[in-house]
Amino acid sequence: MASSNRGIQHLLSASKDMTLLLNRLRAIHAPDERDIDLKPLLHIFEVIFQRAAPTVPGSTKKAHMDAQNDKAFQAEHGELIEQHAFTIRKISNEIVCRCSRSGDAHTTTLSILTMVSEYTWEAKVALTLTAFTAYYGDFWLIAQLYAADPSAKPVAILNQLPESMEHPFSYKPKFEAIDNLLRAIVNVSKLVAEFKETLRGLHSTKDTPAYKSANAVIPRAAYWIIRSMVACASQFAGLISISNEYIPSTTEAWELDNLQMDLYKLLINHTFDTPQVDNMKILQLLTYSKEYQLLLWDCSAKQRKSIDVLRRRLVLLLISDLDLSLEELSILEQMYQESRQHPARMESQYEILWLPVIDSSAPWNDEKKRQFEALQSMMPWYTVHHLSLIDPVVLNYIKEVWHFDKKPMLVVLDPQGRITNPNALHMMWIWGSMAFPFTRAREEALWREEYWRLDLLADAIEPMMFQWIQEEKFICLYGGEDLDWIQKFTAKLHDTARAAPIELEMLYVGRSNPKEKIRKNNDVIATQGLGHVLPDLTLVWYFWERLKSMRDSKIQLGKTVQDDPILREVETMMSFDGCSPGWALISKGPSDMVKANGDTFVMCLDKFDQWKEDVPVKGFVQAIIDHL
Length: 628
Description:
With 628 residues, the protein is of the alpha/beta class. The chain has helices at 2-27, 38-52, 67-83, 85-100, 105-115, 121-145, 152-158, 172-202, 209-241, 250-273, 280-286, 326-340, 366-377, 392-400, 425-431, 440-448, 454-458, 465-470, 483-499, 516-528, 537-556, 565-576, 598-606, 608-611, 615-618, 620-627, and strands at residues 296-298, 303-305, 314-320, 350-356, 382-384, 409-413, 419-421, 474-479, 504-508, 532-533, 583-588, 592-597.
């Protein structure tokens, strides 16, 4: 209880801190209509980022830009930068001086925002980005020339770059963290620019919902963009100030990760909240990768594909770790393949994309590679081409916001990229592709058509079930692990069926966690002709998993055992799973049904002579019900 209270207090404190921060930001924001278009400056930064920001220094990677393009940049943007050169230099000095003195990022960020208080939020970001770009570009220019150009070494000494730049791979984790954060800065900076264009296009005033929405988000976005640039600059300053003895700290890495996560959540939440013409933006964000071309692997065609193949399709995101069970994969694969047999049908109009979630802090090794490739080889749908293509920030988002915790999920994105169901896996287990488009409304509609009957319970696992029902045979489902009880019960029921007389079919469904013992029971039942068995233990698993899915579906819809008869029956069936020595259910037709635990059923059959006269009058099932 104390821990829960501390958690609530922490959330309240964080909310209060954010409110105070936003109030402070608005207090130092006094725009006088001085504006700067962020997009061209952002483009300049991206060009420099491509040219000068390999993952580690010493790389030979170069952006393909010719001299003519360089001149075009100078002509188009040189005047803009010249107009604001004094402010840009002030910001640059603030970044360099504060970071060199180990000033905290928050204080430096507020100082910069105070310098540019008269500019719009977009312009504040643009000016700071320009100052940071110059600082960043200088660092990388010297670092890249360090090993190749003798004249660069004296310059590096004057700039206090560490001698260990000759061995750049020792800094790889830090440069990768900075690289990832800079990508997030670029993405959220584009978001700020998009907000500006949206408001201009809508001719929004301060009273419109669009303006209020932007005013709630843009100040925070600008703060985090600038603070993130300051944090990146601090990493470079740290390299310089401590020379070759510098050791990246876990605190700094944690700060970078948290900043990136905040920026990413801001970007993706805005994209989810904004109407889209298709699902491309969302899918690009969810695969937030360093490699945007041919990101996907088409498991059926065995070739790489662009994410564009999913444009305007209903997409089921299969979220799992590398421990996805073969049972889950096998059943889902069967359902997917069945839907592909009738591609024109409405319920076949969806695609599946597997996004594997791994522990990004654990090292990548051959065992993980083998696990990934083994699962990928068994899938007929789309997957990411390689595990490394999913950024850790996406994995953290899935865990933190979508609450992924090992158990597989099936997140539904409609053709416009909206989440219409945070997890439709239980719908897939119950109804298969008939659950299309896998929305809550569809789930409620399907349940309105259902009632408790044998084919709801078992039609999906035994192809002959429908025929047995049509032929009006009595059908017995039974389960448990005790082979002695199974042999005794099946013998008794067959004898009773002959004496009644009735036509009987029996099907053994084992237990919810089928092990070798269930396999051995199957072999004995089949060999001795005691009845039917499910030929694959995957189907035994699926029988019980469907029951769990029915329960979960009903509970999510707010149903209780008091007001929902199907949920009541499902809970009873699930309680049998722990019964010793076993349990049984007998039915004729879709809904005429009796069930009880194993010993109770055997005792009832032992006393058949006491109720056999009721069978012609009441029927076999009702006669058992009356005698139990």
